[in-house]
Write a structure and sequence with these properties.
Radius of gyration: 27 Å
Number of domains: 1
Oligomer: single chain
Helix content: over 70%
Strand content: under 5%
Distance between the termini: 47 Å
Shape: rod-shaped
Order of helices and strands: HHHHHHHHH
Length: 266
């Protein structure tokens, strides 16, 4: 399962992605069960039960460790993306609050330019950056509007002591927005390693296979247990895929709502 495949899977609507990540393991588990019961007798399962249970326990422990590593890594990606988004929106919000401090009569045009720069940048993020990020692609469409925003605020000439004190904070907020913007745009390239996806896929298949090497006289019960195991495996994969691509999909886990709000700056 490489990065392009996980991106495509995360881009699907959640019900469709769940149907694939859960349905396929369930079908695999049931298919393996049919094969095992057709090839081996109940006596074979009984004789193999002790050794199979020991090996299955070992495989399950490996799966638990790999699943935990995958979920923790995916959650870290989600948390980082959310914090980056909040940091960028927060810096822009502080810039919006600072506009009214430029209240000299000669600065009416400057205030209008500042508010327009924030609205235009937020609009470009929503209309240009976000669709690309939802598709798992990088975007630089909002670069010109961000450069205009930075120039408007950084080039503003303070005319009062309060504005002079505020100018230092404005420079920090612009820098914070720029740093967070870079982080947001590069989130598509920050995902779990292909090797880790390969490992979780291999141990998931191993769990689905090994559960059939010791049987139960009640085949229906064994199929039910196999189905539950497959559902757990599929849910782990689904959660890991979605969390590791928080801006991908319709709708994504993280929305553009903060920028929609900034588009209303007056």
């Amino acid at each position: 399962m490489d990065i392009s495949l996980t991106t495509s899977l995360a881009g699907l609507p959640t019900p469709v992605a769940a149907l694939l990540t859960v349905g396929i393991p369930v079908l695999v588990a049931i298919g393996l069960g049919n094969v095992m019961f057709a090839v081996f007798t109940q006596q074979d399962f009984t004789q193999n039960a002790f050794m199979a249970s020991v090996k299955y326990g070992f495989v399950v422990e490996i799966y638990a460790a790999v699943a935990a590593l995958t979920l923790v890594g995916a959650w870290n990606i989600y948390e980082t993306a959310r914090e980056t988004l909040q940091k960028e929106a927060g810096a822009l919000y502080m810039l919006a609050l600072s506009v009214d401090s430029y209240n000299a009569p000669s600065q009416d045009g400057l205030r209008n330019d500042m508010r327009a720069a924030i609205r235009n940048y937020a609009g470009d993020v929503v209309s240009a950056d976000w669709p690309s990020l939802q598709a798992g692609l990088p975007s630089t469409a909002s670069d010109p509007s961000f450069q205009r925003l930075a120039r408007v605020f950084l080039d503003a000439e303070p005319v009062t002591p309060a504005q002079q004190a505020l100018a230092q904070n404005i420079a920090q907020w612009v820098a914070q927005a720029a740093e967070a913007r870079i982080g947001r745009l590069s989130v598509a390239s920050r995902t779990l390693s292909t090797l880790l996806w390969f490992l979780i896929l291999v141990v998931s298949v191993a769990v689905l296979v090994f559960q059939w090497f010791f049987g139960s006289p009640n085949h229906g019960l064994h199929y039910a247990m196999g189905g539950v195991t497959a559902v757990i495996v599929g849910c782990v994969l689904l959660v890991a895929v979605k969390l590791s691509h928080p801006l991908v999909g319709v709708p994504p886990l993280l929305s553009a709502r903060p920028f929609l709000e900034l588009m209303q700056v007056q």
